[in-house]
Amino acid sequence: MGPATLFDKIWDIHVVRSIEGGPDVLYIDRHFIHEVTSPQAFDGLRARGITVFRPGKTTATADHNIPTREQELPIKDELSRKQVETLNHNCSEFGIEYFGLNHPKNGIVHVVGPELGYTLPGTTIVCGDSHTSTHGAFGTIAFGIGTSEVEMVLASQCVLQPKPKKMKITVNGSLQKGVTAKDIILYIISKISAGGATGFFVEYCGAAIEALSMEGRMTVCNMSIEMGARGGLIAPDFTTYEYLNRIPSVESRPDFKSLLLRWRSLKSDEGAVFDRELEFDASKIRPMITFGTNPGMGMAIDDTIPDAESQGEGKASFLKSLDYMGFKPGEKILGYPIDYVFLGSCTNGRIEDLRAFAQFVKGRKKAPGVTALIVPGSKRVEQQAIREGLDKILKDAGFELRQPGCSSCLAMNEDKIPAGKYAVSTSNRNFEGRQGPGSRTLLASPLTAAAAAITGKITNPADLLKN
Amino acid sequence: MSKLKFNILESTCVPLPLENTDTDQIIPARFLSAISREGFGENLFRDWRYDKAGNKNEEFVLNDPKFRGEILVAGKNFGCGSSREHAVWAIADYGFRAVVSSFFADIFRNNSLNNGLLPVVVPEEFLKRLLAMILEDPGTKVRIDLEKQDLTLLPTGESLKFEINPYKKECLLKGLDDIDYLLNIREMITAYEFRNTLRQ
After folding, report:
1. Which residues of B touch A290 (CB under 8 A)?
2. Contacts of A411 in chain B (CB under 8 A)
3. Assigned CATH topology for domain A290-463
4. For A165-284, which CATH class?
5. CA gap B93, B72 in Å, rounded
6. Among residues A144, A174, A173, which one has the least CA distance to residue A161?
7. What gap in Å lies between CA A1 and CA B195, rounded to an integer?
8. In tens digits, what is the pLDDT along chain A, a chain of 467 residues?
9. Considering only alpha carbons, which residue of chain A is nearest residue B35?
10. A82 with B20: Cβ contact below 8 A
């Protein structure tokens, strides 16, 4: 055997069988489900008259279609309530662990998995949600699947998957002040486009990636899908072990020491071959913002929107996108007034994100015209924020800490941005209508969101950072 | 459980020359509260098809009576974004049986194959020509032969081979189902688990 990539090492030991000329039968160590993409899969099991093959390896949480206020009360929207009740019912019927509303472990599926120690290096994880790539931060093969595939995993603990190609993205150097993990990934996507990594699984490496906390690494891996990648992963290192060592259910495992030893072998070998390799310089990255309707349409916050002629074949799509956003080619958007700010989602709804936002707004006041949605990624994040007094800092600055959920990231609940309004959002997608019909999303980091919330305008957070 | 079979499809096409069409456009999130697989076609491309008041947007291709057919021809990176299989259910429920593009997002492609909706990948240059042809003559018919893996422009007879995973091709031709396949190898999966108890 020649030198292997980390991805190959993990994938290959999870192949139960390779189908001649076809996909691999890939064994799944951990399956997460939520209310939106699972009901039809359970119906499928019932139609076949079969049970869940390994119910202990699936965990459910309600996150996509729930309110972020008054979670103690029954969900008002009838369809949403029915969907959440259906998940509850399916989990009881098939013997699956379920974190419903108000459960102390409830939260966004990709925030909950890592914080509970379910996301472990060297494992395979799937979920009927494209942002499953988040878990790759732990050196995990994690990817989103469709509902038919959710049914496959429930029925057999396996999915049929063609093996993706491998891409290595190295980010050298170190980040400047006011630049975060979110800016790294928005920068990469802006360089290679929203479809630039389609067919690939990405390994992120380099000094700037190694310097990130686990939360930052999750933000990077989370948005791998936004450049089309099947997923993204980062080799586990001391930062990873430290994070896992703090989780009681992991640290107390009798085999923790042997796990640690095994995790140390989880890295790409010297000379391992990737199908594509890209390198970036972290010191060149400035705070990023998107100006269009796919995550590839991003730029440094003080840059100008490219002109249409530079878009070649994509010119029509580019102009349609700018028209939707109410922007023009060649325009600068720094200083542009905004209406909403959203802090949250599986991209930036973790404790570190809330801390960064709170630290930034501490001693300042929210701009009067701005409506802000501050949504923790999980019940645990919410509780931690309250323990640290972040809720008070936020309140003093004019913000309200809501209850956990996916919220305005996909706006299935009432947390919608009205038509025509601009939202600086820490989430992952700026698609047309993503945050509500007609909404205009500007993707950015928690710091850039905080700066916009304080000034009411698109603002470079580096200019306002306290030393 | 057997699924709808796919073999030969001969149809006019509906052109959608936009790039990066994401699954939020195909079926917006507010329609995902349903717990069955049916009826999503009604809201396919909802916010492009209708304005805020629910009136038809006459400019959108699905509302243009000139363009009819079971083949959707779309710009590159079709189906990017959310993994929602509802997008495929909506396209199939509306009446499409194949989508042609220069490349598809990975999850969308898997979801399509799992629902008997054939994703056909053609070179960028060919896609451009095909779109131009359809726009010029909406009566342009295309024949897709899955067995032979070729797509033919009927007016000119020009034919082009396309790739598909041999296993998935077999499943589509015979209406076979991945879950039946997996259920049949449950013993092998159990043996795999046994071998790996020491590893986990």
Report:
1. none
2. 29-30
3. Aconitase; domain 3 (3.30.499)
4. alpha beta
5. 13
6. A144
7. 21
8. 789 999 999 999 999 999 988 899 999 999 999 999 999 999 999 999 999 999 999 999 999 999 999 999 999 999 999 999 999 999 999 999 999 999 999 999 999 999 999 999 999 999 999 999 999 999 999 999 999 999 999 999 999 999 999 999 999 999 999 999 999 999 999 999 999 999 999 999 999 999 999 999 999 999 999 999 999 999 999 999 999 999 999 999 999 999 999 999 999 999 999 999 999 999 999 999 999 999 999 999 999 999 999 988 889 999 999 999 999 999 999 999 999 999 999 999 999 999 999 999 999 999 999 999 999 999 999 999 999 999 999 999 999 999 999 999 999 999 999 999 999 999 999 999 999 999 999 999 999 999 999 999 999 999 998 65
9. A39
10. no
To which residue do tokens 């994040």 refer?
Answer: A381
The whole-angstrom distance between A384's CA and the closest CA on chain B is: 30
Nearest to A411 among B29, B110, B199 (CB): B29
Look at B29 and A25 and tell me if their CB atoms are within 8 Å: no
According to DSSP H, which parts of B12-94 are helical?
23-26, 46-49, 86-94
Domain-wise residue ranges, chain A: 6-161, 165-284, 290-463
The whole-angstrom distance between B174's CA and the closest CA on chain A is: 16
Cβ-based neighbour number of residue B3 at 10 Å: 17
Separation CA A453–CA A455 (nearest Å) = 6
Residue for token digits 């972040």?
Answer: A390
Cβ–Cβ pairs < 8 A, chains A and B:
194
Strands B150-153 and B141-145: antiparallel
Nearest-CA residue of chain A relative to B84? A146
Query: CATH fold of A6-161, please?
Result: Aconitase; domain 3 (3.30.499)
Exposure b/e, A166-188, CB count within 10 A at least 16 = b: bbbbbbeeebeebbbbbbbbbbb
Nearest C-alpha in A relative to B74: A317
Contact check, Cβ <8 Å, A433/B47:
yes
> Inter-chain contact A437–B28, Cβ cutoff 8 Å?
yes
Residues in chain A: 467
Domains A6-161 and A290-463 share a fold: yes
A408, closest residue in chain B (CA to CA):
B29
Q: Which candidate, A253, A256, A220, A260, places its Cα nearest to that of A237?
A: A260
A79–B181 C-beta distance less than 8 A: no
Other beta carbons within 10 Å of B193: 16
Which residues in chain A have Cβ-Cβ distances shorter than 8 Å to B92?
none
- CB contact under 8 Å between A83 and B33, yes or no, is yes
Nearest 5°: phi and psi at B142? Answer: -125, 140
pTM: 0.97
Amino acid in position A43: D
What six digits make up the tokens of B76?
A: 């590159």
